[in-house]
Amino acid sequence: MLADYPLKYLALHWPNIRSMGWAAIRNATPLTRPGHLPELPVHLDARIGALNNELVDQYAAWAGAPAQRYAKALPPHFCSHWAMPMLAKLGSLAPYNLLSLLNQGLRMQIHQPLQRDDAIALHGSLMEVSDDGDKVRIHTRVQASNPKGELAVVIDSYSTVPRGKPASKSKPVKRDEFEFNTVGQWHAEEEDGLAFAMLTGDFNPIHTLKAVGKRTRFKSCILHGFGQLARTWEVLHNASFSIADIDVRWIKPLPLPNSGMQVQVSAKKDSEGYTQLRVAAADGTLHMVGRFK
């Protein structure tokens, strides 16, 4: 499978590798990371050139999309490639060790599709950083516009940095009960972590290096949360669901390999018109939950 993704793709990912690598290295020690949190919000702007069409095709196929689904537009979840340098730069403004950063959730609002062969204008913001004792919570936002200046996609990313202190126990949040139906499934192969990296430029060792994965409590690499989102998105699309607004949380890492991931949606919408979503392993363990409309 990895033979399908030539090394030439690495050149396409250089901005991602440079931005994420520099952010991780600079923030790894107190001597080089920022000494204090800047006044928030902080805003940055960037421009991304038109993306390589071969790379887009390969990524869409990996996610499970039919060949012609994204003939003209970019897959919305390909933000895992074009938004990552901006997210890394914003996160590096916080005075914490990003090597231990964990992606917790994502909300994506789609106002209109981003088109192939178009440049993308990005406006990023470090919105909020809070410390609750056992972890630091970081909220970043990226807004993507087309060459006409029209807003296309808004991404709110939520991550945490553990502080090494024991988490205080809290009462479980009461959730509304919904009846769920399975609308499809997807499978994660052992090499999918590295394949996703070759397609997006996110080479975090926990997703790509087996030697690192074996040293974790999962004893294997884990699939990137954005990879879970991509596969789930295409299953929903195949089941005739269109998505304009999606909000998900990754609640349990997904070890590789993992077959029979069940994509389940609520039979009824909630009071705000959202359909509830969850992704469960074959043994019933929930890995991703959220809602969309």
Automatic annotation (TrEMBL):
<feature type="domain" description="MaoC-like">
    <location>
        <begin position="184"/>
        <end position="268"/>
    </location>
</feature>
<dbReference type="Pfam" id="PF01575">
    <property type="entry name" value="MaoC_dehydratas"/>
</dbReference>
<protein>
    <submittedName>
        <fullName>MaoC/PaaZ C-terminal domain-containing protein</fullName>
    </submittedName>
</protein>
<dbReference type="InterPro" id="IPR029069">
    <property type="entry name" value="HotDog_dom_sf"/>
</dbReference>
<dbReference type="InterPro" id="IPR002539">
    <property type="entry name" value="MaoC-like_dom"/>
</dbReference>
